[in-house]
């Protein structure tokens, strides 16, 4: 069974940069979304994929990821995703033996950077790095689809401060 269990955090400082072991550029596009899940296309420096995700239950959700050709991913991004394409640099960071990813968004989301860690099970203990801030795992303001939608209405790139000011969306 393909289950993704992850936690998401704001960043307190930029000290994570000293622990980066790899960086890759990503373009993620939302192809479809229903109350039962979503379909995303991803084009990265080293791969392309199509992913189907169920809604989260707690920290976990079903995730099915399939490799596709770069040309198919590019075509999907340009013809099926409209304005729902996020661009980011994904930094792989190793801290105390755990692999974190820090996504630094670009373009319309240029003021947003988030740290994520995937877990083996929901109650797994992880040492939090000193550069990690508040946890935003269940906070709807920090779901990529919501960030993208909100950025469409903004004249300037969206920031973490902008998102934190939107209390009405926090647990939507």
TrEMBL record:
<protein>
    <submittedName>
        <fullName>CYTH domain-containing protein</fullName>
    </submittedName>
</protein>
<dbReference type="InterPro" id="IPR033469">
    <property type="entry name" value="CYTH-like_dom_sf"/>
</dbReference>
<dbReference type="Pfam" id="PF01928">
    <property type="entry name" value="CYTH"/>
</dbReference>
<dbReference type="InterPro" id="IPR023577">
    <property type="entry name" value="CYTH_domain"/>
</dbReference>
<feature type="domain" description="CYTH">
    <location>
        <begin position="2"/>
        <end position="149"/>
    </location>
</feature>
<dbReference type="InterPro" id="IPR012042">
    <property type="entry name" value="NeuTTM/CthTTM-like"/>
</dbReference>
């Amino acid at each position: 069974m393909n289950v993704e269990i992850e936690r998401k955090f704001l960043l307190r400082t930029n000290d994570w940069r000293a622990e980066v072991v790899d960086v890759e550029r990503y373009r993620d596009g939302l192809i479809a979304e229903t109350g039962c899940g979503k379909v995303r296309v991803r084009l990265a420096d080293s791969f392309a994929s199509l992913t189907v995700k169920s809604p989260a239950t707690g920290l976990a959700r079903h995730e099915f990821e399939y490799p596709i050709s770069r040309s198919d991913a590019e075509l999907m991004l340009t013809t099926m995703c409209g304005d729902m394409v996020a661009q980011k640099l994904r930094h792989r960071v190793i801290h105390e033996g755990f692999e974190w990813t820090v996504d630094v968004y670009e373009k319309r989301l240029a003021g947003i950077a988030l740290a994520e860690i995937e877990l083996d099970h929901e109650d797994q203990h992880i040492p939090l790095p000193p550069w990690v801030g508040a946890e935003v795992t269940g906070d709807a303001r920090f779901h990529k689809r919501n960030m993208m939608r909100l950025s469409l209405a903004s004249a300037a790139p969206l920031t973490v401060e902008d998102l934190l000011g939107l209390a009405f969306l926090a647990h939507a």
